[in-house]
Amino acid sequence: MIFQRLIWAALAAALLVGSVQTGVQRWQAAPLILSAEVYEDQKAEAPAPSEALTAHTHAEGAAPEHAHDHGSAQEWAPENGFERTVWTWVANVLHAFSMALLVFAVMGLYLYRRGAALASLPLAGLVAAAGWLSFHFWPSLGLHAEIPGMDAAPLQARQAWWMLAVGSAALACAVLGFARAPWRWAVAPALLALPFAVGAPHLAGDALGGFGPEAHAALEQLGQQFVSATHWVALSFWVCMGVACGLAFQRWLRPALLAAFEQNKPVTATPAGVNP
């Protein structure tokens, strides 16, 4: 019963959050990506060196590669416009669904460990803030969002560092949220500092090398705007996630979880000869 409520609550939150995120992306990030792709296409039309091109990623997911595959068929990609917007919405809803399940799991664990002193909406806000810190802000301090056409460090190295940054920040938030011992105030900062002690992978040269002066200047400006846009997209996602999950948790999950926790409480045996 609780599992069924969990799935429906996460789906309801995901539909709302995914739709809002798609709208914010179309307003903030998509125009910048489309503008940068014009220069990327021009770069791809020029004679390319034989070395493999370095992969890059966007805030919306992995970007298609433009290197030719020696006669192989070109990979499918959605057309710009309605088709691309629809598939972006689908991806956003699926992403929001997974994040909603994670938020509900953390909220349920907090409810089990700490009790019902904190209301659902403030609790969801704290969990969403931890999600924003872990999945966006902390990794973005080492690896900024990249526009099409930018070169970057090897993909596997960036993915490994991103996972380290996310894991360290999430663990630091968990230590602060669930531990009660004084050592948590020393462990959490150490965990937050760990990925930067390792160091994020970066290219030694210019990420926009190979472009002419005019294209270089335009892409550099678009890159700065894109970094700002991704911050707004992530902030709107997690704010909306906190509100939607807080309301859904209060409506569908909190009463059922409290009842289940109450039923599963260990019964303390009453000593013989003592009236309860």
H/E element sequence: HHEEHHHHH
> What is the β-strand count?
2
| pLDDT < 50 stretches | 44-72
User: If you average the pLDDT, what whole number results?
Assistant: 85
Strand content: under 5%
Question: What can you tell me about this protein's structure?
Answer:
By secondary structure, the protein is an all-alpha fold. 68% of the residues lie in helices and 1% in strands. The protein contains seven helices and two strands, in the order ααββααααα. The chain has a two-stranded antiparallel sheet with strand order 1-2. Strand 1 and strand 2 (61-62) form a beta hairpin. Helix 1 (2-28) packs across helix 3 (82-114), helix 3 runs parallel beside helix 7 (213-263) and helix 4 runs antiparallel to helix 5. The longest helix is centred in the C-terminal third of the chain and has 51 residues, at 213-263. The protein is globular. 28% of the residues are buried. Mean pLDDT is 85; it is low at 44-72.
Defining key terms:
single chain, 276 residues, mainly alpha, two-stranded antiparallel sheet, globular
Short description:
This protein is mainly alpha-helical and 276 residues long. It contains 7 helices and 2 strands. Helix content is 68%, strand content 1%.
Architecture blueprint of SSEs:
Layout: H1 2-28, H2 30-45, E1 57-58, E2 61-62, H3 82-114, H4 120-140, H5 155-178, H6 184-198, H7 213-263
